[in-house]
Amino acid sequence: MISMKTLLASAVLLVAVPQAGQADVLVGFVTGLSGPVSSIGIPNAKGIAAGEAYVGEVGGEKLRVIQLDDASDPTASARNARKLVEQEKVDILIGTSGAPQTLAMATAAIEMKIPMIAVSPIAPVPSGDGGPWVVQTPQPTPLLVQGIVDHMKARGLKTVAFIGFSDAFGDLMYESLSQSAKAADIKVIANERYARSDSSVTAQVLRALAARPDAIMLGGTGTPGALPVIALSERGYKGPLYGNHGLISADFLRLAGKAANGIICPTGPVTAAEQLPASNPIQKVALDFRAAFEKANGEAPTDSFSSYSFDGWLVFVDAAKRAMATGAKPGSPEFRTALRQALFTTKELAGTQGVYSYTPADRHGVDARSRILVQIEDGKYKLLP
């Protein structure tokens, strides 16, 4: 007669055998579900959920996400990254909402030698040993801002004032504007900044208007990005107003209301997917994204932030397929290395925001196909020629 002890041992063996050949690919995802950047972080999370609904496994291996909230705090972003790598043993990191937070997370990723896909724009980071380790899905800020400056030049504008965040994102926007404007012989005559947590930008707006610029460019995003728009409208400003991709947001439109009418923003093709020609390779992916988003979240996407994280998922899946082909097993240092190498050999991968081709020298991976100009009209984005 077989003893109970033998039966239990056999049962454990039977369970363990199939599991031994399988290992979930673990994705560590950090986002800001609370705090001042939550208007970006919540859509980022919904974009990852759409990605999971779109592709849930690679080569028979399940893709599992472990998500942490950094509360819009850069210190928490780095701490969460370390927890995901050191305790949860994830194979790759994706995140987070906000430029300062993402930079902190990327710095930690490089130190730990783990590949990362940034879903917010970041400044250049050191490659680190065996690197580089970090790619990003948002278009490079200079590429987006160049579209604005080209439009200003075509209109014959000679001066521009800048009103933006007093953080890394604001710095990126201002520096990009300064460089492109100088080459176009357009003078930046005001540089006004405010914190994301500020409740008023009256002083900054008054100083910008006092400079009498031909146009004003906004360097804010999401909900706090609406503050100068409202303040300018209240003071009767009727001149050209240029935004950025961070203003493609339902929260921004809701708060800014009619004051947003006429703002011209550079953004990714997904914003006007149905207005793109059918020959554009991005159109199909962008429309697939909308369907996957609705399936995962029970609503249609109304922002651009969710598509950046969705593209991050597509980039990860593409790299994971090629990393699997090397024979490296998820959970191993070899798989991390294979993932990193695969990321930087991504070629002509169509996403919602662009067509990605990463190299060790190019963490952005996109070209002019990733930029369109849209004008806000009564809560909608109209594609400009």
TrEMBL record:
Keywords assigned: Amino-acid transport, Signal, Transport
Q: Which PANTHER family match?
A: BLR7848 PROTEIN, LEUCINE-SPECIFIC-BINDING PROTEIN
Query: Which Pfam family would be a valid example here?
Result: Peripla_BP_6
Leader sequence segment: 1-23
The highest taxon in the source lineage is Bacteria
* UniProt keyword Transport, yes or no: yes
InterPro entries associated with the record: BCAA_transport (IPR051010), Leu-bd (IPR028081), Peripla_BP_I (IPR028082)
Query: Cross-referenced CDD domains, in alphabetical order?
Result: PBP1_ABC_RPA1789-like
Q: What is this protein called?
A: Amino acid/amide ABC transporter substrate-binding protein (HAAT family)
The Gene Ontology biological process annotation of the record reads: amino acid transport
Family per similarity comment: Belongs to the leucine-binding protein family.
